[in-house]
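I hope you will forgive my troubling you with a question about protein structure. I am sending you one protein, given as its amino acid sequence and as whole-number tokens for its backbone shapes. Thank you for your consideration; the sequence and its tokens are set out here:
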Amino acid sequence: MLRRALLATVLMTGLACPALAAERPAWAVVLHGGAGVIERAKLDPALEEAYRKGLTAALNAATTKLAAGAPALDAIEAAIQVLEDDPLFNAGRGAVFTAAGKNELDAAIMDGSNLKAGAVAGITRIKHPISLARAVMEKSPHVMLIGEGAEQFGKEAGLEQVDPSWFFTERRWQGLAETLKKQGVPMPERPAGAPPAPQKQGALPVDDIATSHKFGTVGVVALDTRGNIAAGTSTGGVSGKKWGRVGDVPIIGAGTYANNESCAVSATGAGEYFIRLGVAREICNLVKFKSMTLQAAADEVVQKQVPALGGDGGVVAITRDGQLAWSFNTSGMYRAKQVADGTAQIGIFKDEK
């Protein structure tokens, strides 16, 4: 009887494991650089090429870590640091400005193997907010820190500090000018330490995320060789934001979530809607409790639930068994993915696979 019972247990549960192990890639990563009104006819060709190079650099940073056997958290942090240093993306040095003419940065990271998480909001002096979020997770008893307290914690943790002017980019400053003009709000003074204003305004190529579409984010989800998944996200928020606004990125379960038992998700979009729905956690709940495929779950939330509330945006997601997904209800999303022994896939526009 005991032997038959053990055999039945193996047949019910054990036989699926070798198949999954055989199908699952040794490692995998999916990342995004923001979603929005991104159309071929409106995106300057040189700027498009620069975006693709930026996505490729971030993807390479992640795959190098994963191929060497590093944890998913290391790959995520490395890739997001690249994107935070790239002025094209709305995170770190490319962050949008508040209505007061400041860069206020948010970030979060989560470990799917143990549900530990770290998040920060309103950062102005830490060079890499994603690293500060990881420090909160690993070196403090807390999940979220904000503002001056978070900055002080980062200083004590030995993270690199920069003058707020380091985050300034002319492209985003022009984007703020257009946003405030539409709102009938006066433009703030140019930040201290910023380079002199160019003599010919409008000389820089701009894309719709920089101007007419006000939000953007960067994020990465990864599966490592240990079979663990994780997620990380970083953003400058919404152009022209007021009153210390914080979006979905640092809200665990909204813009960032990871659990080995379901999936890992990083989101980008109209944060208020993603917070209300708990988008990242909702996708993982559909995978775990409804047994939906990752792509079906992502599409259910992003293509149906978010638009039903009036929101837009997208997500990237991953599971332990190697399912990779991205879904967005906008005309484009900067995105990339790769699995072990596979080739890199880079996309921007909706008609790209």
Observations:
- The first strand starts at residue 28 and ends at 36.
